[in-house]
Amino acid sequence: MKKIVKYNHSDFTIDEFLRLKKDKKVLAVFSTFGEREADLIKEKICVLKRLPDGVIDKIIVNHRRISETSDKTEKVISELYDDVDVIVSNCVSVPDMNNENGKGADMRRTLYRINMEYLKGMSAEDVLIVFLDADVLPEFFGEHFVICLAGGVLKGADYAKAGFWRDMGRVKKYVAQPLFSVIDHPALKTLTEFSYPLSGECAGTLRFFNSVRFWQMYGVETGMLIDASMGEYSLADINLGLYDHEHHNDINIQKMSFGIIRAYFKSLVDHGIISLNKGAAVSNIFSAEYIDSNSKRVILQENLNEIKYQPLKNIL
After folding, report:
1. 3-state secondary structure of 102
2. Do 41 and 77 contact (CB within 8 A), yes or no?
3. Which of 61, 131, 270, 284 has its CA 20 to 30 A from that of 75?
4. With contact defined as beta carbons under 8 Å apart, do 256 and 27 qualify?
5. How far apart (Å, rounded) are the C-alpha atoms in residues 149 and 129?
6. In the 8-state DSSP scheme, what is residue 63?
7. What is the pLDDT of residues 210-260, one digit of tens each?
8. What is the CB neighbour count within 10 angstroms for residue 139?
């Protein structure tokens, strides 16, 4: 079974980080959607800018507009931070992508732009990407998110995943962790060792991110984790301490859970670990009935199909 190196946030210092970093580049990438994180992203960029010179080489905001014109998030960043790059996902053209929405799709678009415009002759092995969620509550976010995640990669991991304590974490506790224990297979044992397998905060070499498949929406963390666990990669789990963000309503939690379960089973089929017989298939449709608070019967039928993209290295 593959060994995961496990760190606590107290295991990293800025001095050691800079000593290990040498000539490598660290890019911190926030994901934002519309105007909902406009104020939060302003605070988080301010926190990262307190780090000493040389820790982060570039802060990038991977942003999806809701409208066709610049929104509050973009304006706040441009007014306060002229050295922060905003990559508007709606405007990025990737050869094998159309205009589909989704966190994973937008992360992949930003990675494509980084490959095309930011390397400047550097190897993809020497560029570290730290993905950060913009909706983390300010009292939990800190410099350690970058120092520790990128630090795990500088210490030898191809991919470092954040772990933390979170007040609710319903999908992690009641869906992902039980699900990842259901199929007993040597290549999947690693999945049960990640303390928060669905965290959006992670870091890796650009070469790693170019080598794994990105899922369009809810399946992005699950799909990447399976590829990382089954591939020839060194992995790290980083305890960042306490964490929280806005909690989703029950319907969104159900849709997210469906996406994770669907990505898990489709990945296992694609890797040849399980097979579906006698006409069975992994469904794209989330179907459910429930009685609402007004004693009314509600029927849900929602198509949650999402694209599983090929590794970026195939099109670069």
Report:
1. coil
2. yes
3. 131
4. no
5. 10
6. E
7. 999 999 999 999 999 999 999 999 999 999 999 877 777 889 999 999 999
8. 8
Structure tokens at 88: 């508007």
For the domain 4-247, what is the CATH superfamily, name and number?
Answer: Spore Coat Polysaccharide Biosynthesis Protein SpsA; Chain A (3.90.550.10)
Strand, helix or coil at 68? coil
Say if residues 87 and 110 touch (Cβ distance below 8 Å): yes
Q: Find the angle CA(160)-CA(239)-CA(267) to the nearest 5 degrees.
A: 45
CB 153 within 8 A of CB 203: yes
Q: What is the pLDDT of residues 190-210, one digit of tens each?
A: 999 999 999 999 999 999 999
- Phi, psi (deg, nearest 5) at residue 8: -105, 155
What does the alpha-carbon distance between residue 316 and residue 311 come to, in Å, rounded to a whole number? Answer: 9
C-alpha distances in Å from residue 158, one per residue of 147, 151, 253: 15, 11, 30
Which candidate, 198, 221, 194, 191, places its Cα nearest to that of 209?
Answer: 221
pLDDT in tens, 301-314: 999 999 999 999 99
Each domain of the chain, given as residue ranges in start order, spans 4-247, 252-303
Instruction: Examine the pLDDT at 1 and tell me if it is beyond 70.
Output: no
Minimal CA–CA distance to 53: which of 85, 14, 9? 14
